[in-house]
């Protein structure tokens, strides 16, 4: 029993904010995400991809960005809670394919670290977490955008 | 035998038009879709996702937006026809993961109704239709965008 | 053993450039892709989708657009190299679903030729390559955007 999940995220970028991707701070970023939580666009889209595969809503249901309780929230906690929900439904992630669209900085040198960290957070080997980086080619110079597709496999009844 | 399908849709929004999503009218929408048909961006992207999984073209082939015959068309008829084509090819949808990007109104309160309606239209249990809502974060304030990923399973030879 | 892959591409369009999609020149295009290689947005997104399914990075790793060696590169060579890498990992593509977003020209009349060519390049029957065409509805009139989802199947240990 296999299911597909798909999720997206976007954040506006501004100076004076941190840029965190897959739980990894990007030290060379001149701009970071404007967000209620820590603005980790990989983990947000990944969490939504996993929730969609089991039809359990999206992270806005569980962590509304209007709730002061979640201000500055570490997105690893969001992903952790989502993994609990997915496993309670009897599913586990099989593999993940994600694309980050960001004009600057170039992220290629951080691919291995980000993939390794995402893999550890979801409990998969690194060989099951594909990470691609693209630029917006002028379409969104002051935003980060992420899109994540995942397979999930049923592990219990 | 499993196949993946993927489809997208986008429509410009304007006052004085209805907003219909997954066959469900959104009564609180100040702007609706500018479209030749009823502009249901969920059902259009879903129909294209299903067609792509069986490599049968896209809805523009079957319902060209230049044909007066399809003016104001109820998109449930588009999806119904596409499901016939998919089933004739021997496939049936297994699960669906969809993302709607829309700045206003917030749609979270309508998630269950939209998911239930889409599930009924494609003949799946609600547990197989994941629906996520995002905002464009300033990238597309006067548009609705949808992206749909689906798994299809072969059911006959 | 099934894996999902997902990839994207975008290019700015300008007069005086060729538009090539899935290895097929589009003769009626008034604008083509501004790119370091031949700018084939279908093959770039497809190559990234396949790499992501086996977690082997993206085409920027193998064919950096800062390297004069790859100026004007035929993207069929990129895809060919990526297929070698995927097969070395023990996987082969099962089916492909791709969306091209482009305002002009309309591409519907070229769908069969593009699908046939992509299928031949990846070694799949045409029945496993779904091709959809969309317009940006005003969001990106001077760009081409592509998104590709693929299933891969493990064929050896
Ligand atoms: Mg976010
Ligand atoms: Mg539409
Ligand atoms: Mg490219």
UniProtKB/TrEMBL annotation, chains A, B, C:
> Which residues bear the site annotation Transition state stabilizer?
36, 135
Q: Which EC numbers characterise this protein's activity in its record?
A: 4.6.1.12
Q: Cofactor comment in the record?
A: Binds 1 divalent metal cation per subunit.
Q: Provide the cofactor list for this protein.
A: a divalent metal cation
Q: Which InterPro entries match?
A: MECDP_synthase, MECDP_synthase_CS, MECDP_synthase_sf
Task: Please tell me where 4-CDP-2-C-methyl-D-erythritol 2-phosphate binds in this chain.
Answer: 9-11, 36-37, 58-60, 63-67
Can you state which reaction this protein catalyses?
4-CDP-2-C-methyl-D-erythritol 2-phosphate = 2-C-methyl-D-erythritol 2,4-cyclic diphosphate + CMP
Q: Which UniProt keywords apply?
A: Isoprene biosynthesis, Lyase, Metal-binding
Q: Can you tell me which residues bind a divalent metal cation?
A: 9, 11, 44
Pathway in which this enzyme or protein is active: Isoprenoid biosynthesis; isopentenyl diphosphate biosynthesis via DXP pathway; isopentenyl diphosphate from 1-deoxy-D-xylulose 5-phosphate: step 4/6
Tell me which Pfam families the record gives. Answer: YgbB
Q: Which HAMAP family match?
A: IspF
Function noted in UniProt: Involved in the biosynthesis of isopentenyl diphosphate (IPP) and dimethylallyl diphosphate (DMAPP), two major building blocks of isoprenoid compounds. Catalyzes the conversion of 4-diphosphocytidyl-2-C-methyl-D-erythritol 2-phosphate (CDP-ME2P) to 2-C-methyl-D-erythritol 2,4-cyclodiphosphate (ME-CPP) with a corresponding release of cytidine 5-monophosphate (CMP).
Regarding protein family, the annotation reads: Belongs to the IspF family.
- Subunit description: Homotrimer.
Task: Report the protein name in the record.
Answer: 2-C-methyl-D-erythritol 2,4-cyclodiphosphate synthase
Show the taxonomic lineage: Bacteria, Thermotogati, Deinococcota, Deinococci, Deinococcales
């Amino acid at each position: 029993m296999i299911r597909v999940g798909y999720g997206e995220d976007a954040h506006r970028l501004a100076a004076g904010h941190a840029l965190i991707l897959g739980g990894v701070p990007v030290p060379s970023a001149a701009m970071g995400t404007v967000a209620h939580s820590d603005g980790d666009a990989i983990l947000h889209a990944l969490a939504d991809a996993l929730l969609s595969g089991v039809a359990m809503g999206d992270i806005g249901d569980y962590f509304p960005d209007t709730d002061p309780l979640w201000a500055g929230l570490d997105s690893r906690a969001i992903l952790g809670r989502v993994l609990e929900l997915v496993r309670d439904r009897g599913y586990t992630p099989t593999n993940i394919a994600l694309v980050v669209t960001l004009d600057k900085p170039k992220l290629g040198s951080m691919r291995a670290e980000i993939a390794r960290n995402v893999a550890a957070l979801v409990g998969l080997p690194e060989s099951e977490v594909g990470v691609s980086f693209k630029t917006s080619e002028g379409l969104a110079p002051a935003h980060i955008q992420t899109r994540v597709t995942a397979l999930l496999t049923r592990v219990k009844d």
